[in-house]
Amino acid sequence: MTHNNPPFPSADHDHKNCVSHALKNAEAYCQQQGLRLTKLRHQVLELIWANHQPVGAYELLDQLTHEGRKAAPPTVYRALDFLMENGLVHRISSRNAYVGCSNAGHEHTAQFLICESCGQVAELDNAQIGSVIAKGANQLGFTVAQWTLEISGTCDQCKHRSQDE
Amino acid sequence: MTHNNPPFPSADHDHKNCVSHALKNAEAYCQQQGLRLTKLRHQVLELIWANHQPVGAYELLDQLTHEGRKAAPPTVYRALDFLMENGLVHRISSRNAYVGCSNAGHEHTAQFLICESCGQVAELDNAQIGSVIAKGANQLGFTVAQWTLEISGTCDQCKHRSQDE
DNA sequence: ACTGTAATGTTATATTGTAACATAATGCAG
DNA sequence: CTGCATTATGTTACAATATAACATTACAGT
């Protein structure tokens, strides 16, 4: 049911389509859950997807303003709060930046590959990682509420690109 | 060789000893690596361990000032940079806070259990997690440079404490 | 239409982190 | 030991990120 974005989409992928797909997913999800995906929230979510890599809150604020909306920091942060609470957006805390979640409605976990070269982020959904984490934590009597895994490095494309030089 | 802090040390553990142990480790490590653990850096590291849970940079700044040192933000941040570069301290990015690293000199990876109730943090060193991550990333052609795993939840002690109420 | 709730607007400010340049301490070659 | 290069620290100013608090508007259900 969820859109399956390839990790690190190639430069020539159908970006417009991929954004609108994500939005349709979000709309459907909110509908189904009785969540109010207001115009503002929709707009912010669209901007996040359109950037297609982690965006800062103040960058979103600028973009909102350019789209003609009157906005201040709380405008953006409140929209982000809503989107995060409902699993439509993740925060990459090592970068103070936000990305669209490719499988809305999932648990509150996230795994990111962050390419230091091109800045793109791919979201993983590796069940094995999840289960190993759960196991490790439980052994210590720790009850897991949520977690984030942020992996920095170099993506395949950038590796090849640098070899070409 | 490294001090093996139990995850989530009990309230009655020998705190003073545990701090001085960590400092001795750090001193030895720096000696051996030819790193300059200056007075300032030593002082900051000591404060971090003394807090024994994630501390913010400005909190450290306050504490430094109370110890009579003239300090401004860069004072702290530079010490933190040094300590992090050399694996003596980790940054918990989901909290903008810093903790002592229980096994200095390790790779640039970190796994934290963060108790939402008592605020304490335990550092894991689960090799299985590391290898699953490496494997998952490599499958996508991604070269891992470093990673952080931040797990929020409730520690064993807090779980029992809340049952007693 | 009326009303309570949820969402947004607005202003001000808190918190976290850096840039840039000046001064002081340290290690080392001669 | 002296001067020199390097590294560390002091100092001032500011950038970037995030929230508090209160006013206003929109909305859903009656």
UniProtKB/TrEMBL annotation, chains A, B:
Alphabetized SUPFAM superfamilies for the sequence: Winged helix' DNA-binding domain
Keyword Ubl conjugation: no
Single GO biological process annotation from the record: negative regulation of DNA-templated transcription
Main location: cytoplasm
Keyword Transmembrane: no
Gene3D superfamilies reported in the protein's UniProt record: 3.30.1490.190, Winged helix-like DNA-binding domain superfamily/Winged helix DNA-binding domain
Coiled coil: none
InterPro entries the record matches: FUR, Fur_C, WH-like_DNA-bd_sf, WH_DNA-bd_sf
UniProt organism field: Candidatus Thiodiazotropha taylori
Complexes and interactors: Homodimer.
Entry's Gene Ontology molecular function annotations: DNA-binding transcription factor activity; transcription cis-regulatory region binding; zinc ion binding
Gene name tied to this protein: fur
Pfam family, one: FUR
Family: Belongs to the Fur family.
First and last residue of the signal peptide: none
Cofactor list: Zn(2+)
Name of this protein: Ferric uptake regulation protein
Cellular compartments annotated: Cytoplasm
CC per GO annotation: cytosol
